[in-house]
Specification:
By secondary structure, this protein is an alpha+beta fold. It has four domains: 12-31 and 57-237, 2-Layer Sandwich (Zincin-like); 269-386, no CATH class; 395-471, Immunoglobulins (Immunoglobulin-like); 482-566, no CATH class. It has helices at 80-91, 161-164, 167-182, 217-236, 249-263, 277-282, 293-303, 319-341, 343-357, 364-375, 380-386, and strands at residues 12-14, 17-20, 23-26, 35-37, 40-42, 57-66, 70-73, 76-77, 113-123, 128-131, 135-142, 149-156, 189-194, 202-205, 208-211, 395-400, 404-409, 417-423, 426-433, 439-443, 451-454, 469-471, 482-486, 496-507, 511-519, 528-537, 542-553, 563-566. The strands form seven sheets. A six-stranded mixed sheet has the order 23-24-25-26-27-28, with no helix packed on it. Strands 1-2-3-10-7 form a five-stranded antiparallel sheet, with no helix packed on it. α3 (167-182) packs across α4 and α4 (217-236) packs across α5.
């Protein structure tokens, strides 16, 4: 197929394509033939909130531009003189150019012109970014499987240069890690570019990513890792992301979380949000793990009964639930599946999946077949129910008796679950059980003064956790601790929180009143929510106040989304 075409590059970056002054972001810029696969033809328009589905092929692209432009592009650069130019910039940033200028300033374009050629096979997209202000870093990483070396680049302006000086180590670390988990990185070059972007924090292309403002070293590492992970699921496997976004975005998000958990053990949420430890301690949120943010994001629509299934098309979601379901809930679902199967078996399965379906456009049934053939398990609870419905996961410990636990599935999803027995800070055992509906007695041998908890690490996407624990001795063995919180707190799934703060009021009968507001509400709804405000009235030397208790019922598969009864 051949066709002439011309592109007028818009000023400013509209979603992904455009230019800011003399900085160019060239992506989604050429006519693409529709994919024909076992499901037929796939014609699709460009969309901002949706990925793409394109056919594999060999790309050879030549770019002509002034010689002092620095280009990050898909594919293998063919020009030896340009390779030396990049090497010189990487080894000596001041090589032949001025680098100290204001962010908005552009050096004059050279009167000399160069034509750069890039070639790559077995890819389905091509993008390039050009800026005369780029700093360049270059590195190499040896792949764990084949020992092949990958050349890596980081290109960035002064805008966040203090963060990007470490970017090449972020790139190399992520490529090495994901190659170990999934299979060797599929290309010979990877380039991370810092440039203008109006579609998310980063955007992936084969062998290339563009990253917008990060603001923090950890967040930059996070976005780079996420975009690099797309090299396997978006670039090399080439799933239909428009129809099944979870096959790329959700799996990549799960791997991103795994990578960051191992690289930054002990990272706390306050470091990404409050960024002030004293303030975090004041609000008693200084011990919440950083990766818990994904759980909090999907609990908001889940507790409001506003979820959608994971396996819908990208166009079926709005901007809010696309993020909470595809990036958060579904990612936690794959983390849950990995925890159930174990890291070793899960990695074996993903190596098999990548090896079998590289460059072949796999569909959800293909992913499921690889998992079930490697495990010998019926994983309908995951591929049919977790991905295909909004069935909820909520196991409850009812009581203990003679080294047994009576457990009830309060939800509709009969996925597996695990029990952890602890005595103080010592973990005695971890015990996985297959899922079930209704109630079931589980044999759980224990010693005195033990506590047994369902999923204390939060790998399961559980709707409620206050019913997940029991102590094997003592009184009030199922009671959860009550924690006082001043002014406000975020969701604390294992605690009953009581939020308090002083209150003032006035009316003509009672005059000035002072009191205390007591409530348990957060942004994430609870089954029972209350607000009590007792007041002391100075005029009458008496007591008055206000109180409210609300009961929230969230039916499943019912026209009524949520029923609230208030007293």
């Amino acid at each position: 197929i051949t066709t002439p075409f011309h592109v007028k590059i818009p000023e400013g970056v509209t979603s992904r394509l455009g230019h800011i002054g003399e900085s160019y972001q060239i992506s989604q810029w050429y006519p693409k033939p529709a994919v024909f696969d076992r499901s037929g033809w796939h014609q699709m328009p460009y969309l901002d909130q949706a990925e793409f589905y394109s056919e594999f092929g060999r790309f050879e692209v030549s770019i002509t531009l002034p010689s002092n432009y620095i280009v990050g592009a898909t594919g293998n650069l063919q020009n030896e003189d340009e390779k030396r130019f990049l090497d010189n910039l990487a080894s000596d940033p001041s090589s032949g150019r001025a680098i100290y200028y204001r962010e908005a300033d552009f050096p004059p374009s050279s009167k000399e012109i160069k034509t750069l050629t890039y070639i790559e096979k077995n890819i389905h997209d091509f993008a390039w970014f050009a800026d005369k202000r780029f700093h360049v870093q270059k590195g190499r990483v040896k792949l764990p499987g084949s020992g092949r070396e990958v050349t890596t680049f980081a290109m960035f302006t002064n805008k966040e240069a203090h963060l990007w000086w470490n970017a090449i180590s972020y790139v190399n670390g992520a490529i090495s890690y994901f190659s170990k988990c999934i299979g060797d990185y599929p290309y010979d070059v990877f380039t991370a570019v810092q440039s203008t972007l109006n579609s998310g924090a980063g955007m992936e292309y084969p062998g290339l990513t563009v990253i917008g403002p990060a603001g923090d070293p950890y967040l930059l590492d996070q976005v780079i890792a996420h975009e690099i992970c797309h090299s396997w699921f978006y670039s090399a496997l080439g799933s239909d992301e428009r129809r099944f976004p979870f096959m790329d975005e959700s799996i990549a998000s799960a791997y991103e979380s795994r990578y960051l958990d191992e690289k930054y053990p002990g990272k706390k949420l306050w470091e990404l949000s409050f960024r002030n430890r004293k303030l975090a301690r004041f609000f008693k949120v200084d011990e919440i793990p950083a990766q818990r943010i994904g759980e909090l994001e999907w609990l908001i629509p889940a507790r409001r009964n506003q979820e959608l299934p994971v396996n819908l098309s990208a166009t079926d979601y709005n901007s809010d639930n696309y993020g909470s379901i595809i990036y958060s809930k579904a990612a936690q679902g794959f983390t849950y599946l990995r925890a159930y199967l174990g890291d070793s078996l899960f990695d074996t399965i993903m190596h098999d999946y990548f090896g079998k379906w590289k460059n072949k456009h796999p569909q959800p049934g293909d992913l499921r077949a690889v998992f079930e053939s490697n495990t010998g398990k019926d994983l309908a609870w995951f591929f049919d129910d977790f991905l295909g419905t909004t069935k909820r996961l909520d196991y409850k410990i009812i009581r203990s008796e003679n080294n047994r636990l009576l457990i009830k599935n309060n939800g509709e999803l009969n996925g597996p679950f695990y029990l952890k027995k602890t005595k103080g800070d010592i973990v005695n055992s971890v015990q996985w059980e297959d899922g079930f509906n209704g109630k079931k007695w589980i044999d759980v041998p224990w010693t005195d003064e033990s506590e047994i908890v369902i999923d204390p690490e939060h790998v399961m996407p559980e709707l409620y956790r206050l019913n997940n624990n029991i102590r094997t001795s003592g009184i009030w063995r199922k009671a959860d601790p009550v924690k006082l919180r001043f002014l406000y707190t975020i969701e604390e799934p294992e605690n009953n929180t009581l939020i308090y703060f002083p209150a003032l009021n006035w009316n003509k009968d009672d005059g000035l009143m002072a009191g205390l507001s007591l409530n348990n509400g957060t942004l994430i709804p609870k089954p029972v929510e209350f607000l009590f405000i007792p007041f002391y009235t100075f005029r009458n030397n008496g007591v008055t106040g206000y109180g409210r208790i609300s009961f929230n019922i969230i039916p499943y598969n019912n026209p009524v989304r949520i029923a609230t009864f208030t007293l």
